[in-house]
Amino acid sequence: MSEQKYGGDQIQILEGLEAVRKRPGMYIGTTSSRGLHHLVYEIVDNAVDEALAGFCDTIEVTINGDNSITVVDNGRGVPVDINHKTGRPAVEVVYTVLHAGGKFGGGGYKVSGGLHGVGASVVNALSEWLEVNVKRDGHIYNQRYERGKVCYDLKVVGDCDVSDTGTTVTFKPDGLIFEETLIYEFDVLKHRLREMAFLTKGIKIILRDVREGMEQERTFHYEGGIKEFVQYLNNSKEPLYSDIVYCEGLKDGVQVEVAFQHNDGFNEVVDSFVNNIKTPEGGMHLTGFRNALTKTFNDYAKSNKLVKDSDPSLSGEDIREGLTAIVSVKIENPQFEGQTKQKLGNTVARGAVDSSSALFTKWS
Ligand code: 0RA
User: Residue 268 Cα, ligand 1 centroid: separation in angstroms?
Assistant: First the structure.
């Protein structure tokens, strides 16, 4: 274990991660199989943020033989320079300080869901061990942590081409925390990683299982983003028209994307996301979409004389019969610190509400 001498800052840091180990549920919801899988999404989220910032296009996720997970991205690499507030390398701060989100470099376009920057340290706290390798400036840097504690100072373990950059994180979830199971399920990861790829057009996410007898690999890459998501959801259905309707807009720092297509069935399948997180309870971003859709169809029908002015309006339910739609809202740089995920989600959703309703009203 660590030979390191800890100053005041370091002691505070360890207490921070100790809090995560004492009450893991507060940070990842549950320590069941669901929580175990959640760790992967947190690490992938950080790479997705790097992709949204425009610096990364490929993320590889591997389930290793010992049920540890490796996530590789080809972004800029987590910064390794000294963070002046703590006197430690930025990468160490990212993995060992609970509220390191969006603090380094600044100006990052961070919208992906999850714990917004604290995710990496939460995963570290809940892992028996975690190792990070950063390729940056022609060097390969490495550091290892055990149950959140630094094992040795960040060190250079090799060289690489200056153009070769990225971050590799390998972690083994802690059996002291995840008492139900430590076994990863390929299909569970597959489902969420595919969703992440649909929601982040252009990104390539590769999922690989190298456990003996379970070897398999899937690649998710959708240039059409949520348009392809709708196509996928309508795959086994009979669409009423061949084009998938798609629109996007940016207003007040909120990016809104909508894709939809009707099929000949009766069911309405409308999934909504805020910062890549599904919002099954809906919210005003969904209400805004529904109202806009109803108004647009009615206005079109009237102005093209498809219905008489004296006819009653088509109801929302009529218009949504057989509708498959994805509504995805992304909010830039929400400034949250040390808040629980639920509070964060609520605040994000509230922000989305105001801006996206206004936007939808304008479109319709
Ligand atoms: C440059 C600056 C910042 C982060 C990164 C690169 C970066 C972070 C991660 C995490 C996983 N992969 C990554 N690749 C690059 C700082 C940006 C900020 O803190 O807002």
Answer: 39
The H helix count followed by the E strand count for the chain is 10, 16
Range of the domain at 286: 226-363
Q: What is the pLDDT of residue 336?
A: 35
Q: What count of other Cβ atoms lies within 10 Å of the Cβ of residue 317?
A: 10
pLDDT in tens, 110-139: 455 555 567 999 999 999 999 999 999 999
The reported pTM is 0.85
Task: Find how far residue 348's CA is from the centre of its chain.
Answer: 14
pLDDT digits (tens, 9 = 90+) for 133-173: 999 999 999 999 999 999 999 999 999 999 999 999 999 99
In this structure, which residue's CA is closest to atom 4 in ligand 1?
78
Q: Of the candidates 221, 238, 273, which is a domain's last residue?
A: 221
Is the same domain home to 54 and 135? yes
| Whether residue 169 is found in the same domain as residue 91 | yes
Expressed in angstroms and rounded, the spacing between residue 214 Cα and the centre of ligand 1 is 33
Q: Which residues surround ligand 1 with Cβ inside 6 Å?
A: 46-47, 50, 73, 75-79, 102-105, 108, 110, 167
Taken in order 116, 177, 34, 37, is the CA torsion positive or negative? positive
